[in-house]
Design brief:
With about 80 residues, the chain is mostly helical. The chain has one domain: 434 Repressor (Amino-terminal Domain) (Orthogonal Bundle), CATH 1.10.260.40. Helix content is about 65%, strand content about 0%. The chain has six helices and no strands. α2 crosses α3. The longest helix is centred in the last third of the chain and has 13 residues.
């Protein structure tokens, strides 16, 4: 994961670690470990954050610098490809 990406987007929204920890139903200490890269954030929590920030999981992971979430049609196409494999 891109170290700093979670912190960057959180601070851009004017939120604290405690705010996000509450959203994820975890502690501030646990969320801090995700943010600084001591512990990997579970996929289900990444999805919650991507939805909350209106971005993609790829952005949060540092796989793209585009904050815009993927259009729904792209997501459906990717899901169909994965199911067919």
């Amino acid at each position: 994961m891109s170290i700093g990406r979670l912190k960057e987007i959180r601070e851009d929204k004017g939120l604290t670690q405690k705010d996000i920890a509450k959203l994820l139903k975890t502690t501030q200490q646990q969320y801090s470990k995700y943010e600084i890269g001591i512990q990997m954030i579970p996929v289900e929590r990444l999805i919650i954050l991507a939805d909350y920030y209106n971005t993609s999981v790829d952005y949060l992971l540092g796989r793209t610098d585009n904050r815009t979430p993927y259009p729904e049609s792209i997501l459906k196409t990717k899901s169909k490809i994965l199911v067919q494999q």
